[in-house]
Amino acid sequence: MSQNVDCLMNFRCFLMFLFLKGNSGLKWIWDINHLFLSSQFGRTEVIDNTLNPDFVRKFVLDFFFEEKQNLRFDVYNVDTRSSNLSKHDFLGQMFCTLGEIIGSTGSRLEKTLSNEDGTFTICHKTEVIKNNLNPVWQSFTLPVRALCNGDYDRTVKVDVFDWDRDGSHDFIGEFTTSYRELSRGQSQFNVYEVLNPKKKGKKKKYVNSGTVTLLSFKVESEYTFVDFIRGGTQLNFTVAIDFTASNGNPSQPTSLHYMSPYQMNAYAMALKAVGDIIQDYDSDKLFPAYGFGAKLPPDGKISHAFPLNSNMDDPNCVAIEGVLEAYFQSLRSVQLYGPTNFAPVINQVARCAADMTDGSQYFVLLMITDGVISDMDQTKEAVVNAAGLPMSIIIVGVGPAEFDAMEELDGDEVRVSSRGRSAERDIVQFVPFRDYIDRSGNQVLSMARLAKDVLAEIPDQLLSFMRSRAIEPRPAVPASGSQSHSTATTTSTSISSIAKGRNTHA
């Protein structure tokens, strides 16, 4: 008798609760709120009788590198059993971003376990093998987190069904295993009897409904952006601003560089939008900042990579506010001129990146410009060379100019090439700022939209470089004065299996 077999793999979870109880004294609650939404995300347990509470309950938040995710922590002294916070004493609050937490020394990424009530959740469903009593299923890949959430002894249950076209699939049987058992690979320990509990209870001579044999099992590491940040990889942020004459006289309101006392210009908005997020991943908060396309005092020499702080030996500015201050100061001292050459600044950052290819540093260059590149051939060559380095380039176009030529540098569709060589990675992201400006004039919203889009590719670009050089993240750096914690790398499992049916019980 032929049958169509379908296989479902499930995992079982377990949960442990810890209760702390005290007779009287000080109690604490820690509330997490979204700053902009002003909505409570979650609340910890109450801790009794201590001035130094150590909260156990954890919260799961989606992490977006390209967004500034603001958090607020409120602390209360709890006097009654009431869940109404107005009934308790407010002790204080703290603001931060999720990026600051992840980018800090010794940060840890925590996720709660799902289905800890003893039920199972489907984590993989195989293809259907029709008209075959001995089906061989294709191998498939699963994250270890999806299979067992890092618990190698957690029960994994496999259900086998006889497929029916109308969807009323007949249950053939099941068996259980674990990640630890599967990791033994093809062996006598990974031949499983498929049992049907109902048949076993009704038929005395029932043995099984067939067997499933594991053919292969392989574990591969798949590191994430967070793994590298936790291991100490720093993002080095460099800024390059267009000081060509096409921007207009900075003293005139029509200029893209106009310094209004009431609002930021487009250059400042783009710089702050991107910089405010990236600075959370740079421990020293020192950012090299350059200008290009200007005549410099005192001799009027044209430069395409001059430090905004006028310090040729040390172009670093302290935090994003320092970069903005140096930018405004340069507008008062240099003469806007031209042409619009990108290659000198790209090569400047590339030289720094070439000295740090061990995975400890990754360089992000933000270039803000109002016009078409004058040295396109040299720029393409610089990009091709930089693609082999730990480096990404973000280009933001401001103003009404046509930026069609810029799309050639953004290698989403076709990789940039120069002199017969193609870039080994896509490292350039170009966007025109005008596409993100809020129609109501809300600058905060405009900046958030811009940052989200231009930064979205950075994590994958960083990972592509690390993979190309077979670089693994270093062990997570423990917080100062804290105990070290063992960590497991993000891994995936590749599984192949074969089933054999018994004709008497098909």
TrEMBL record:
Domain C2: 1-113
SMART domains for the chain: C2, VWA
Alphabetically ordered keywords of this record: Calcium, Metal-binding, Repeat, Signal
Composition bias type Low complexity, residue spans: 480-497
Single GO cellular component term: plasma membrane
Top-level taxonomic group: Eukaryota
Gene3D superfamilies named in the record: C2 domain (2.60.40.150)
Signal peptide limits: 1-25
A molecular-function term among this protein's GO annotations: metal ion binding
An individual GO BP term: cellular response to calcium ion
InterPro entries registered for this protein in UniProt: C2_dom, C2_domain_sf, C2B_Copine, Copine, Copine_C, VWF_A, vWFA_dom_sf
Spans annotated as Disordered: 474-506
Recorded family membership: Belongs to the copine family.
UniProt name for this protein: Copine family member 9
